[in-house]
Amino acid sequence: VQLVESGGGLVQPGGSLRLPCAASGFTFTSVRMSWIRQAPGKGPEYLFTVFDDGSTWTGDSVKGRFTVSRDNAKNTLYLQLNDLKTEDTAVYYCAKESNWAWDYWGQGTQVTVSS
Fold this sequence. Notes:
Blueprint: E1 2-5, E2 9-11, E3 17-24, E4 33-38, E5 44-50, E6 56-58, E7 66-71, E8 76-81, E9 90-98, E10 101-105, E11 109-113
Parallel strand pairs: 2-11
Antiparallel strand pairs: 1-3, 3-8, 4-5, 4-9, 5-6, 7-8, 9-10, 9-11
């Protein structure tokens, strides 16, 4: 199993980023996938779960600025971050779910929001 996030970087407040997560080594179309982030000095924060049919569960911390999608033909999960704020600075991870637990995580991609 391999999960590879990309697309992070330095962005100004109000900016946008799109984070892909490329998946391989398992049947992507049959599993739930999640996005989680971890800010400096804080614990992991759940953002989204995307089901194999494209439906989603949204974490409480999401306030309409982020959206999630998956492209099963490309084995890729996406996280669209809009209207970014300094408090969104974190490492963003995608994770594969199995039996209601995250069994594989990517290496993460750093998002830094700063002017």
